[in-house]
Design brief:
The complex is a heterodimer of chains A (about 170) and B (about 475). Chain A has about 170 residues and is α/β, with parallel strands linked by helices. Chain A is about 20% helix and about 30% strand. By secondary structure, chain B is mainly alpha-helical. Chain B has a three-stranded antiparallel beta sheet with strand order 1-5-4. Chain B has a two-stranded antiparallel ribbon with strand order 2-3. Classes of the chains: A alpha/beta (about 170), B mainly alpha (about 475).
């Protein structure tokens, strides 16, 4: 026989599960991404992807990793700004280094967030490179960090960086 | 040989205090399914929105490492189809059909005495077997390496199964999805024959005298058997989903849960069941080669999502289907035919001999799967410690163990566990073959001669596994 009270209670429990789990996931995600001094820091989220050998701003998760190749990131910061790179890997262990700024090299392990902080002092373009052999595109896994002047002034032309052309892993989306 | 309503065992409802009270509560199944539903739902979310890296995603580690090991090595041997008791896949479909999560509806329209929503159509007779389950499982396992390594593939399969189950519950009566479609249900039905427990009637005479048949038709106290089997006539575990409704509905208090000897059910009743046994042993063999063997090329072929070798995958898939559907059945047919000739029993129909001897693959297959799963849990089990703390591979650290390093747990002990497990499987296989030979050819030398070819083939299969596991 049907007890209205039992059915209501059990229905409520099911709804609590269906609504509660996404809520809990979002809450955990927010707290994991929280930066204590976030207001004073320029936070840049980068994900390293072995397929294509790129760093991207896009959050590579289950549903989008297999659908398309993400767009290559070109982070822009300003001189004197406190910069925090929050680095993830979408697949394998990668490396991260900006040699001219003495940032890294460090490992980016899949399934965790690796943080790097620095404060650029000179405007210009700087090479970001993977320092851990991550796959067939490793040798071409570069990105450019643009450092503008303290008020957003463009950097001098002679500081422009030219990346070697990609041969093994040409870019499709940019 | 088969368990029967009259078979003896330990009546667990009497032996375990409180068990009968628990199993006959209407809220029991809801209470065990709800937490499982929560996990399952979370696994889908983790597969879609979590890390694409399998070893960092709970949907892979908990399902294909932990759940799989618990299912095949613990749940099925010890508790038959207890997974079906707690399975969340048919939850929404059943909720729709019953329009109740705990209570029972009586009246029309419906099935038996129970009022049920939906079209309540009968499942087509031509599909009232496990052929669909055989093919769906084989298809799923053909893409198995992608399934067990890619969280999104797992999530899509989980969500797809829930969607399909719900749709079939709307159209067809009771648990048609579980009985005839669910790919997991097929092998659970086969290997539950080996389980230590069974649900049976306590006294067959009471059932014979019963005019009420509430266990089948339902009543005020519970739903008629959702698996559409007649609980009073259960003589094998295969199609009993342990939903415990018959314990609740029986007006004579004549249904019980019994502990019994391992592999008490030995007979396969149709080609669909025999083919399930062939498919399962073939898959165990193929997975042992792909996942544990030293052959990198075959590994690449089996997982086309890794390097896109679709030509190699076509070759791998063709070989797998040929092995499961042609080569292994043909070998068993040949061995059975030889056995019949050696026994001088050409008057016994070949179908009976073939099905009878195919039963040897039930204990052998179960034990081969357990042996296959042992190194998986030993080698990869430490990932469980990571993912409980960071279930989506997003950089969380709920329990402080997210960075626990991958640590194989005594992998060198795997062969010492695998070998005895395989030998136990072979022992029960030989016993099953011998038992069938005695019943088909009579006791004495004829039975021994009749059983010999299948015994040799079973031993060869076990040796093949031994070679793959320990070299």
């Amino acid at each position: 026989m049907i007890s209205k009270r039992d059915e209501l209670l059990s229905g409520f429990l099911v709804l609590a599960v269906l609504a509660g789990i996404p809520w809990w996931v979002m809450r955990q995600e927010r707290s994991a991404n929280a930066v204590p001094d976030g207001a004073n820091v320029h936070v840049i989220n980068l994900t390293a992807v072995a397929d294509g050998g790129i760093y991207t701003f896009e959050d590579m998760v289950g549903h989008n990793y297999w659908r398309r190749r993400p767009v290559v990131a070109r982070p822009v910061v300003r001189v004197g700004e406190k910069v925090l790179f929050r680095l993830r890997s979408a697949d394998v262990t990668h490396g991260f280094s900006i040699p001219e700024l003495q940032v890294g090299p460090i490992y980016i392990e899949p399934g965790s967030v690796t943080e790097v902080r620095f404060e650029p002092s000179e405007p210009g373009q700087y090479l970001i490179q993977c320092t851990f052999r991550c796959g067939g595109c490793h040798e071409e896994m570069f990105a450019i960090l643009e450092v503008l002047g303290p008020h957003g002034e463009p950097f001098p032309e002679d500081m422009r960086l030219k990346l070697p052309p990609r041969v093994k892993c040409p870019l499709r989306d940019c | 040989m088969n368990g029967s309503p009259a078979s003896k065992g330990i009546d667990l409802l009497r032996a375990v205090p409180g068990l009968k009270w628990l199993l006959t509560r209407r809220w029991f199944q809801f209470a065990v399914v709800l937490p499982n539903l929560a996990f399952f739902y979370f696994f889908v979310i983790a597969g879609v929105f979590g890390s694409p890296v399998g070893s960092r995603n709970i949907s892979i580690i908990f399902v294909w490492i932990l759940w799989w090991f618990l299912l095949i090595a613990v749940m099925v041997p010890l508790a038959s189809r207890v997974w079906c008791t707690v399975c969340p896949i048919p939850f929404f479909g059943e909720w729709y059909q019953r329009r109740a999560l705990i209570g029972v509806r009586v009246g029309k329209p419906g099935v038996g005495r129970n009022q049920m929503a939906g079209f309540n159509k009968r499942w087509p007779k031509a599909l009232s077997n496990i052929w669909l389950q055989n093919f769906s499982f084989l298809l799923l396992c053909t893409f198995g390496v992608a399934l067990i390594t890619r969280p999104i593939v797992s999530a899509l399969v989980f969500a797809g199964l829930v969607g399909l189950a719900t749709a079939l519950h709307v159209v067809y009566r009771q648990r048609a999805f579980c009985s005839y479609v669910c790919p997991i249900s097929g092998f659970l039905s086969l290997y539950s024959m080996c389980s230590f427990i069974e649900i049976r009637s306590e006294d067959p005479d009471t059932c014979a005298r019963c005019t009420d048949k509430a266990c089948l038709a339902g009543g005020d106290a519970g739903w008629g058997c959702p698996w559409n089997v007649n609980p009073s006539k259960l003589d094998r575990n295969n199609y009993c989903g342990l939903c415990t409704e018959c314990l609740k509905t029986c007006t004579h208090d004549n249904m019980t849960v019994r502990a019994r000897p391992f592999c008490s059910d030995t007979r396969l009743k149709g080609y669909d069941e025999a083919y399930k046994a062939f498919i399962m042993i073939s898959l165990a063999l193929a997975y042992s080669v792909v996942l544990m063997g030293p052959w990198g090329t075959i590994k690449d072929w089996a997982n086309p999502t890794e390097r896109g070798r679709w030509g190699g995958f076509a070759l791998y898939a063709s070989a797998l289907w040929a092995l499961a559907l042609v080569i292994v059945p043909a070998l068993f047919y040949a061995a059975s035919r030889l056995g019949r000739r050696f026994a001088g029993a050409t008057h016994v129909p070949m179908k009976e001999i073939f099905l009878g001897f195919s039963g040897v693959l039930v204990p052998l297959g179960l034990m081969a799967w357990i042996a296959f799963s042992i190194p998986l849990i030993l080698v990869n089990g430490s990932y469980i410690i990571n993912v409980v703390s960071d279930p989506m591979g997003r950089g969380w650290d709920l329990l402080g163990t997210a960075r626990f390093p991958w640590t194989p747990f005594y992998p060198q002990s795997a062969p010492y566990l695998q070998v005895p497990v395989l030998f136990i499987g072979l022992y029960y296989a030989l016993r099953s073959g011998d038992g069938f030979a005695r019943s088909a050819f009579g006791a004495g030398p004829a039975a021994a001669k009749g059983a010999a070819p299948v015994a040799i083939l079973s031993t060869a299969v076990a040796c093949g596994f031994l070679w793959l596991f320990v070299g």
